[in-house]
TrEMBL record:
InterPro entries: Gfo/Idh/MocA-like_OxRdtase_C (IPR004104), Gfo/Idh/MocA-like_OxRdtase_N (IPR000683), Gfo/Idh/MocA_Oxidoreductases (IPR051450), NAD(P)-bd_dom_sf (IPR036291)
Lineage: Eukaryota, Metazoa, Echinodermata, Eleutherozoa, Echinozoa
GO molecular function, one term: nucleotide binding
Taxonomic source organism: Holothuria leucospilota (Black long sea cucumber)
Coiled-coil segments: none
Annotated protein name in UniProt: Uncharacterized protein
Domain of life: Eukaryota
Residues annotated as domain Gfo/Idh/MocA-like oxidoreductase N-terminal: 12-132
Domain Gfo/Idh/MocA-like oxidoreductase C-terminal: 146-341
């Protein structure tokens, strides 16, 4: 069916949190203005909300510093996009659901089990559609893995191995200097980074339930005791900066001089247009210019999660900071009749009976789309959510409240296993998810 046939009218949305992800999702309205109009925004940062206002032509009376002022009004849009910092997801999600807004909620749902449960419960009670931004479920490669498993081509799945290579400088940017560096201020890294990945494994396993889970991990490298001799407290004032792979000067000024004005350079400029002066000033005074060994980070830089599913099927997830490629996930699915391997963007099936290897062609996002993140998955997720709202058909959303809650609870169970140094019996501790 032609995508345009889903839309009999222009949908209206509200944005709560006008940072990078809010900007990303709302770019759909720039590509398809006949389908979507951003009609209101709330963000405490003046530059962020003014940029959103300017980009989408939002009326001044609908530009707010806080979301409470919006939810206090009568419902005036079809859905709300919530892209606030992680620990501020629950209250707006619950409040807007009670007002009847459909919700696109950035992952993770929330930073506690109880808050996740409340969000799912309230959305179901108020009959609103909620889509947590597990964008990888919408990745053509990850969907194809799901389809192949369900087709029976590789027989019964016996084991899944999944690698999330975060990327050495990406980890330093986001989890050492950035918003997700400190568990008390945000959350633990498995939830912030890999709830995507636990969700994928659960989704691929289908009707098989995770029965037991264990996990090991720690912060190995980015600690004060590992600071190189002679290093300064800021990269711009460091005598050995040129010999450090985690130099903020190399990362931000280097990328700016190479022509990059987008992530991660744009992040440190607080929604203002990056200039060399602004980038330099940010490194002189802001958190992103700190020595990577002198930050208040405490989240794991490596973690493994081991899962045992119904019937003895197993899965392993590895998250590691120290990699060349950024979030270039690798997946192996081992079945009784064949195996799947997804490496460097290529998905192949090896058939044990014929000895033949099949490489799958994978669709990509439309060429004119600004939603290119996660290999085009950002587009496919947002487009699916839009179609679901336009047609009032929740089946077009691949991860409703129950699925999202289930995979989040597995993430919390894995972290409990790590911190308590034990195997968590999921069946006993999460009997009904």
């Amino acid at each position: 069916m032609d995508s345009s046939s889903f839309f009999s009218r222009q949908l209206h949305c509200i944005v709560i949190g006008a940072g990078n992800r809010g900007e990303t999702y709302t770019s759909y309205a720039l590509d398809y203005p006949q389908r979507l109009k951003v009609v209101a925004v709330a963000d405490p940062k003046k530059a962020a909300r003014e940029l959103m206002q300017k980009t989408h032509g939002i009326n001044t009376e609908n530009v707010y510093t806080n979301w409470q002022d919006i939810v206090a009004k009568e419902k005036f849009a079809d859905f709300v996009i919530i892209t606030t910092p992680d620990k501020f997801h629950k209250d707006p999600a619950v409040s807007f659901a009670k007002k009847g807004y459909h919700i696109l909620l950035e992952k993770p749902m929330a930073v506690s089990e109880e808050d996740c449960k409340e969000i799912a419960r309230v959305c179901k009670e108020n009959n609103v559609m909620m889509c947590v931004c597990h964008v990888l479920r919408y990745s053509p490669a990850m969907k194809k893995i799901k389809d192949v498993i369900e087709s029976g081509m590789i027989g019964e799945v016996v084991n899944i191995q999944h690698l999330e290579p975060v990327g050495y400088w990406h980890f330093a940017h986001a989890y050492v200097r950035g918003n997700w560096r400190n568990e008390a201020e945000s959350t633990f890294s498995l939830l912030a980074k890999c709830c995507h990945d636990v969700d994928l494994i659960m989704w691929w396993m289908g009707n098989k339930r995770c029965e037991k889970i264990s996990s090991f991990g720690s912060l190995v490298h980015f600690k004060k005791e590992n600071k190189p001799a002679g290093a300064g407290n800021r990269c711009l004032d460091c005598n050995i900066e040129d010999s450090c792979p985690y130099s903020a000067k190399k990362l931000y000024i280097g990328q700016f001089k190479q022509g990059n004005r987008d992530w991660p350079v744009s992040i440190i400029c607080n929604s203002e247009e990056p200039t060399l002066e602004r980038v330099t000033n940010a490194l002189k005074t802001g958190p992103y210019g700190r020595c990577a060994y002198e930050c208040d980070n405490d989240v794991c830089d490596n973690q493994v999660v081991n899962m045992s599913f119904t019937g003895g099927t197993t899965a392993n997830l590895t998250m590691i900071a120290y990699t060349e490629r950024i979030c270039n996930r690798q997946v192996y699915v081992y079945g009784t009749k064949g195996q799947l391997a997804f490496i460097n963007g290529v998905l192949k099936l090896y058939d044990f009976l014929t000895g033949k290897t099949t490489q799958f062609d994978l669709p990509s996002a439309p060429r004119n789309s600004r939603l290119t993140g996660h290999g085009g998955s950002d587009f496919f997720l947002f487009d699916s959510f839009m179609k679901a709202v336009a047609t009032n058909d929740p089946s077009l959303i691949l991860n409703g409240p129950d699925d999202s809650l289930a995979s989040h609870l597995l993430v919390f169970a894995a972290e409990r296993a790590r911190t308590e140094n034990r195997i968590v019996d999921v069946c006993k501790e999460l009997p009904t998810w």
